[in-house]
Design goal:
- The protein contains 10 helices and 10 strands.
- The protein is of the alpha/beta class.
- It has a 4-stranded parallel sheet with strand order 4-3-5-6, sandwiched between helices. A 4-stranded antiparallel sheet has the order 7-8-9-10, with no helix packed on it.
- Helix 2 (about 40-55) crosses helix 4.
């Protein structure tokens, strides 16, 4: 949801400039994204998270209505931004691939659909039935069902509909073992689910030993910012760098994300061009009526 908001919202709050600015990811305002929810209520939970992403105000403050006058105005404007953006929210707790295809195709009648976000990958009863029908009841094991999901996401959604598909899933028990490597073996469904994925990663809170591994890197500066999380990218199909670790600061209250530095799998600093998970923000054009308001 944070990814869709950061990609599709036509404007977004810049914490440095303390103002709404044009979203560099969507400068023409014509990108379209679809969010498929499975657990969170659209009105009571999903909307609030999206408001937080665009406004920069943490969800806890929004829920408790603990807002200053400035934040009230900022929140009202963020809601208007979302209404003017092509962000489509759906609640589908028992989705299957045919349903997802139908939703995307319905919107493709009137507009190009660029992003499909599915929160999250799970073995719904409809998916299980669809997989068994597809395989003529040959696929019954969990790993086979997850392979069907991976294959369908790539072939029937991403490739056939020409869209970017993003999703997440649960980790297995190995996440509690600090000695376990952060790779496909930690994913529920494991290698079957990751089979067709182009880019796969695990995001976890930074561990003490990891801070020790990058202590010399941290001494170089980074504006005295310490990472809170590490994104362990263990698959990057077609990329020059096949595996790496991105140390970042994350605020789960408003999904703000700041990449600090990138290392190889052995925690050695890599010299790579930085690509922001949160959009690069450019100066606001005149004539939008925002200068001096926030």
């Amino acid at each position: 949801l944070g990814e869709i908001g950061s990609l599709i919202a036509i404007e977004i709050w810049d914490h440095d400039k303390q103002a709404f600015v044009k979203n560099h990811n969507n400068p023409k305002g014509d990108l379209s994204g679809i969010y498929i929810g499975t657990e969170l209520e659209l009105d009571m939970e999903v909307d609030i998270i999206l408001w937080a992403v665009v406004s920069g105000i943490e969800t806890s403050k929004i829920i408790e209505m603990d807002l200053t006058k400035e934040e009230e105005g900022r929140l009202d404007y963020a809601i208007e931004i979302i209404k003017r953006s092509k962000i489509h929210l759906y609640d589908r707790p028992n989705y299957d691939i045919a349903q997802l295809e139908g939703i995307v195709k319905k919107h493709q009648i009137d507009e190009d659909v660029d992003v499909l976000g599915i929160d999250y990958i799970m073995l719904t009863s409809n998916l299980v039935l669809e997989a068994r029908e597809y395989s003529q009841n040959m696929w019954t094991r969990e790993d086979q069902l997850f392979l069907f999901i991976s294959k369908s996401f790539k072939e029937r959604l991403a490739n056939a509909l020409n869209i970017y598909v993003s999703s997440s899933t649960q980790l297995n028990r190995s996440v509690n073992d600090k000695a376990s490597e952060k790779n496909a073996g930690m994913i529920r469904g494991s290698f079957s689910l990751c089979d067709k994925v182009d880019c796969a990663s695990i995001v976890l809170e930074v561990e003490k030993k990891e801070l020790e591994f990058v202590d010399e890197i941290l001494k170089k500066g980074w504006d005295n910012k310490k990472p809170t999380h590490v994104e362990h990218i263990f698959k990057n199909r077609g990329g020059k760098i096949k595996a790496c670790r991105i140390f970042k600061r994350m605020n789960l209250g408003n999904m703000k994300m700041e990449d600090l530095f990138c290392t190889d799998w052995d925690y050695k600093l890599l010299d790579v061009d930085q690509v922001f998970a949160e959009p690069y923000l450019e100066e606001q054009e005149e004539g939008n009526g925002l200068e001096g308001i926030f």
